[in-house]
Amino acid sequence: MANSPSQALQQFTQNYIDLWQQQAHHAAKSSELYGIPSPCIVDTQDLAVFWQPIRPNTHTLNIVEEVINLTIHPAAHQFYGTQYAGDMTAMHKTLPITLIQVWNDDDFSRLEQNIIAHLTMQKRLKRRPSIFIASTDDDTKLVAIDNQTGNVILENLIDYQNDILAEDLSTFLLNLKPIAQSLLSGV
């Protein structure tokens, strides 16, 4: 079992890449990322990019900490500082999710801005701070790291009824089942 969020993310990513190799016989593919530069791109064909993760990603969330005046949970730093990669689809039990990843340096800047906006809104609403790590099919729910406990939660943005999905990020990532979503949709 991986003992750090970074190792768990690398293991999940490898499982995701292996799934693409086994099912499609090529690198992970994305049409959504076509035309957006990245060090991850290994090929471009038919309005899609094929990608591999690039490590290490040396970015940190230190700017977010300075702007918000809040210490970010170490798991969030590791999650967003491990690699450059495309977003990856997965299942957590019966919940389909898309892990948010950093595609390039500009993407990381946008990510910082979005995390700052998210934390600012939580502060205004007097909610516990969290750092999002995945989206769901429901725009009112996201997967996040509870910044105080390190629990991975399903955060409801409307009524703030949160469900704990895992005690920590490593456990969460190691229990995800990768899904090559583009293969399912024929992209």
From TrEMBL:
Superkingdom classification of source: Bacteria
Pfam family, one: Syd
Major place of residence: membrane
Protein localization: Cell inner membrane
Organism expressing this protein natively: Orbus sasakiae
Membrane topology of this protein: Peripheral membrane protein
Family: Belongs to the Syd family.
Alphabetical UniProt keywords: Cell inner membrane, Cell membrane, Membrane
Matching HAMAP family: Syd
Protein name stated in the entry: Protein Syd
Function according to Swiss-Prot or TrEMBL: Interacts with the SecY protein in vivo. May bind preferentially to an uncomplexed state of SecY, thus functioning either as a chelating agent for excess SecY in the cell or as a regulatory factor that negatively controls the translocase function.
